[in-house]
Amino acid sequence: MKMITRPDSILVTMSKQNIAEWGGLETLDRFFKVHYSGENDNTFWYKVGKNLPIHRDLLYVYLVLENEIRWRFNLVCFEECPDGVELYKNGKPTIFKGNFVVVSGPLIKAPERFPFKGFQGFRYSGVIY
Question: What does the alpha-carbon distance between residue 85 and residue 3 come to, in Å, rounded to a whole number?
Fold first, then answer.
């Protein structure tokens, strides 16, 4: 990817452990297809780490899974939740503290393979697809 002066998107990644907690990559893919594809505009909260982006007027969030860019969501907002927010994990309400990116559908699956090595936090990007 070439250097950009003003980003349009960010990339976030999900760890292998987190993918396993979701039941594996196929289960996670099915979950996203059911809840975020087509006209569905459900929101999804994703923890992005201790730092939030400086540039916040972005269009998309790309999700990197197993060293590939696999999904594109629409960016809704960023949320700082030092006291925590109640989200569901394994069907049970759980308090998560930290910074989150809130995304919505329609979800777009990558039209081709986009290899991208995993990382922590987020990375700025231009529009990839």
Answer: 35
DSSP summary character for residue 120: S
Chain segment 65-122, per-residue pLDDT in tens: 999 999 999 988 888 877 777 776 667 777 777 788 888 888 888 999 999 998 888 8
CB count within 10 Å of CB 14 equals 19
Instruction: Judge contact between 43 and 103, C-beta under 8 A.
Output: yes
Question: Which DSSP string do the residues of 28-69 spell out, in sequence order?
Answer: HHHHHHHHHSTT---EEEEEEES---S----SEEEEEETTEE
Report the CATH number that the domain containing residue 87 is assigned in CATH: 2.30.130
State what percent of residues in the chain have pLDDT above 70. 87
Which domain covers residue 17, as residue numbers? 9-125
Amino acid at 31: F
pTM: 0.80
